[in-house]
From TrEMBL:
It comes from the Bacteria. InterPro entries: CvfB_fam, CvfB_S1_2nd, CvfB_S1_3rd, CvfB_S1_st, CvfB_WH, NA-bd_OB-fold, S1_domain, WH-like_DNA-bd_sf. PANTHER family: CONSERVED VIRULENCE FACTOR B. This is S1 motif domain-containing protein. Belongs to the CvfB family. SMART domains: S1 (SM00316). One of its GO terms (molecular function) is nucleic acid binding. Transmembrane segments: none annotated. It holds the Pfam family S1_2. It comes from Litchfieldia salsa.
Amino acid sequence: MDELQAGTVVSLMVDRDAPFGFFLTNGDEDVLLHKKDITEDFNEDDRNTVFLYQDHQGRLAATMTIPKVQIGIYDWVEVVEVKPSLGVFVNIGISKDVLVSKDDLPGVDHIWPAKGDMLFCSLKTDKNGRLFGKLATEDVIRTVSKPASKNDFNKNVSGTVYRLLLVGSFVLTEEGYIGFIHETERREEPRLGQKVEGRIIDVKEDGSVNLSLLGRTHELLDSDSEQLFSYMESRDGAMPYWDKSDPDDIQERFQMSKGAFKRALGRLMKDGKVYQKDGWTYFKKE
């Protein structure tokens, strides 16, 4: 008889009742099915299909609510709590949330998933039989993805970040495309599990795509110009930056490249809203 294991779905017989539920058995081991985990399909005189997990006291327990993720079965699950000392907890659809260990998360916590983010996970157990969330590998993502076509070029898409590298981020789009966002095609590094919106800037031979989160040129120009104008408004119509300012200073203050800064500033000057003098930029008075 196989040993009962958290994270699996099994069919068990009712062995005996208790004030707080029923004990189920496979003939060798017993496990508690608490009243709160009983559904209307429960049959006291026959086998019942249940999912096994550890309760809040760490004891093996059963529920008739079968989660969408199990050992070897992947799906999207929502992050419901972040514990810096442990990792993040995800809701798999049962009464107890499951931990994705910090050992499986990025080394810097500012790109950890936040509450409400989504992770593509299955379940796993450690050597002590404790249940954890297991992030999907690249190979797993490829089994659920599908190729884009050349007709998808320049299309706006939404996707969820599933892998982070120093040079960029990988997402799985709502269409099922694997997308890569190079670090130069974003303003800031997205979190693992974060939903992002961008556009397809290249469709590769294998059907994966390159994405940009920066928007189209005219959209960027409007956004960047508005950012500079708002910054100047907050400083009574003047800022100590102009088109000859140091690129690093511009990046640190506005999170934009020197080229983007000059284009945005040029738009404001062309529109007659600002002028430059002695290393500063000022509002033009009406």
